Amino acid sequence: QVQLVESGGGLVQPGGSLRLSCAASGFTFSRYLMRWYRQAPGKERELVASIGIAGSTTTYADSVKGRFTISRDNAKNTMYLHMNSLKPEDTAVYFCSAVNAMGIHWGQGTQVTVSS
Question: Which of 23, 3, 12 lies closest to 81, judged by CA?
Fold first, then answer.
């Protein structure tokens, strides 16, 4: 059974940092493109960052470029999102996803709230 479990969300002040984790099980993690998405209240889900199978290719939304870093550890079946210089507009539920030619799998999400 495919499982993606996000963790590491919480409440942080503007300018602060958080590290999100996505633990994968039930599939061959190293064969999947991995992505982080987020969805703020009243808004559509948006793609935040992607990382290729080997971890050497990454892409970011313009809104997070230079502040967020996506990474993966295929030996641990885990993906990360390091978030620095957080802003109130980064407040959202963050989801991880695993993508290949067969389809896409989603985690349940973790809440990130940036507020003073």
Answer: 23
